[in-house]
Amino acid sequence: MLKLQRADLFREAAYVGGEWSTGNGHTWVPVHNPATGAQLGRVPSLTRANVEEAIASANAAFAQYRQWTGKARGAVLLKWASLMLEHKNDLAQIMTAEQGKPLREAQGEIDYAVSFLEWFGEEAKRVYGDTIPAPRGNQRITVIRQPVGVCAAITPWNFPSGMVTRKVAPALAAGCTVVLKPAPQTPFSALALCVLAEEAGLPKGALSVVTGDAVEIGAALIESETVRKLSFTGSTAVGKKLMAACAGTVKKVSLELGGNAPFIVFDDANLDQAVQGAIASKFRNAGQTCVCANRFLVQAGIHDAFVERLTQAVREMRMGHGTEDGVTLGPLIDDAALRKVERLVADARSKGASVHAGGERHPAGPSFYAPTVLTDVTDTMSITQEEIFGPVVAVTRFTDEAEALTLANATRYGLAAYFYTSDLNRSIRVTEALDFGIVGVNEGAISTEVAPFGGVKESGFGKEGSRYGIDEYSERKYVCLGNVA
Ligand code: NAP
């Protein structure tokens, strides 16, 4: 059982137009604790009519909310941020219970989620337009920025709070209103945020969180002519379907999709930094992040030393339930995730990969997979083609820079890439040659609210965070004032 200081943060109800809703009252979605498999609670499966109600109330709220000054909108976001910090421990407990990540990581995610409220709380005042010198003397040309309108947001389970505020904060800062569908595995974090948003003074209808069947809710959001924008974070497969469906109403779309990040270690790398960066990039959230290093490409001269040091560090990790002291790695989200990792490791082994650590389930519970190090990995193995989304390091040896770049770019994804080198010229050359939206040079932890997060190729488009993030939620309107006397 959850022991919260504020028990009312845990809601088994959706949040529709500023009211807590149980939908039709008899269709529910169970939510499980991935560390134990036990049921944590349930949320209502809303009907299409409930979702339409959320959209209608977002539209009604938009008419008022768009008139607020940026300063007033920012003040609500900043207040919301301070309430999240005040209740950080409760929010982290809820997250660990539904998602599985260690409590310290969950607390770190609450800070990350808060950082978007703070950043966009400040940016709300800076939605600047332009003045443009007109070609005719009697004209004045300006560009004003206006909110897109009602936005739909669909978020995944790996960052149950961070992905919510990364979308909702810029939308609300710009003057939009939002209907959000959280992942079914982790709805309680999003719902807890609604309790605090309401306390921060967010008007009714400005944010709804709708729970239930993804296809039904997705269709209601996407087919709606009122919803003008979809922001989706999730798999490339689902992103493609949603993008196609959004053509029906020509919605503005941002997609933060899957990744297949290369992590390149050159012979001239600082070994300590490379191992530390590898751990940071690979094992956060038990390997379940879209920017996790997926393919380790290690140059022949440093290969054995890197593998030895990394294997040693991996053996020292403590896997267990996220609420236990000292635990650094939690479970995978569910059985399907566990079976996927098993399949990828089995395929790699059958094609010649060697296991240095792990390579099997972990006894801590039903969804735990032991931290694993594989070498002799080749590009014929599925593990280099698919997102692993688990605590598995897959190492491929290479001989020179050209080979490393060819291997690194040989993917349809383009989200994050990392490399380690002490050669300045190489750092510039390789950065420019990598076909990815984010590059970490001698750095394995790259997520921050101040920088633009987003991919290229089949990892999607649109930036989240940073001064560019608010662009996704505002339109530029060109105004031509003529016949100026
Ligand atoms: P997913 O299966 O694509 O699901 C993401 C969300 O979309 C869930 O809420 C899901 O609900 C919903 N969904 C699925 N089908 C839908 C439909 N037809 N209409 C509307 N909504 C639908 O992805 P996931 O397994 O939860 O998340 C992991 C993926 O997200 C990975 O590929 C990861 O790389 C990516 N990710 C990307 C970023 C980034 O910023 N680029 C960040 C985090 C994660 P249901 O589960 O109910 O189907």
Structural notes for this entry:
With 485 residues, this protein is α/β, with parallel strands linked by helices. The chain has 14 helices and 20 strands. The chain has helices at residues 48-65, 70-86, 88-99, 103-123, 162-174, 187-200, 214-223, 236-246, 271-283, 300-315, 335-350, 382-385, 401-409, 424-433; strands at residues 14-16, 19-21, 28-32, 39-44, 130-132, 140-147, 150-154, 177-181, 207-209, 227-233, 252-256, 261-265, 293-299, 354-357, 372-375, 392-398, 416-420, 438-441, 460-461, 474-481. The protein has a seven-stranded mixed sheet with strand order 14-15-16-13-12-17-18, with helices on both faces. Strands 9-8-7-10-11-19 form a six-stranded mixed sheet, sandwiched between helices. The mean pLDDT is 98.
Briefly summarize what is shown.
With 485 residues, the chain is of the alpha/beta class.
Keywords for this structure?
485 residues; alpha/beta; seven-stranded mixed β-sheet; six-stranded mixed β-sheet; 14 helices; globular
Mean of residue pLDDT? 98
Low-pLDDT windows of residues: none
* Attached small molecules: NADP nicotinamide-adenine-dinucleotide phosphate
How many E strands? 20
Query: DSSP strand (E) fraction?
Result: 15-25%
Helix content range of the residues, please? 25-40%
Helix/sheet category: alpha/beta
Main β sheet profile: 7 strands, mixed
Helical stretch tally = 14
Please compute the radius of gyration using only Cα atoms. Answer: 23 Å
- Order of the strands making up the biggest sheet: 14-15-16-13-12-17-18
